[in-house]
Amino acid sequence: MAQSATNLIAGPALLYTGAFGATEPADTAVNATPAASAWTEVGFTQDGVKLVGDQAFLEFEVDQTNTTPERRQTKQDWMVETTLAEATLENLSLTMNGGTTASGAGFKSWEPNETTSATQPTYKALIMDGYAPQQFRRRAIVRKALSTDGFEVAYVKDKQTVLAVKWAAHWVSSSIRAVHIVDQTS
């Protein structure tokens, strides 16, 4: 591939959440906002939205050479990481994979789930809409995600209160991949 400045990418991404199994936008709709009936934008983020891929390999060893003769993939992890700049109860619920909400005249509240370790967690689906080469759009869909880190809410005199979150992707099925990435091309 020849060098091209039009392949350089910069700019923010929008992040949406939906229920695990939510209807995904068609690849041809990569430049359109996901349907509000299935997808909710999380609001402002801080320091970007990252899609992180990681993989691990088994290294084979033999006596006849000191060069690794072959590797086999043993693990693949995908994460979406961001800092939610809007420290709302709805975003707090996203960082903790749900919970119980209530509201009434002049208030709303949230309490975390308390379940046994054997309880199936509530998975989410994520859409990350950012830029692709040539100022087109790129969409990454994580089909089955779970927030896997803890969080803290800090109230500091000279700093913004934010919620850092990491969602890990999980296996869906033998025919449906955990992650789908599509670029707009025209």
TrEMBL record:
Record InterPro entries: Bxb1_TTP-like
Source organism superkingdom: Bacteria
Name of the protein in question: Phage tail protein
UniProt source species: Streptomyces ortus
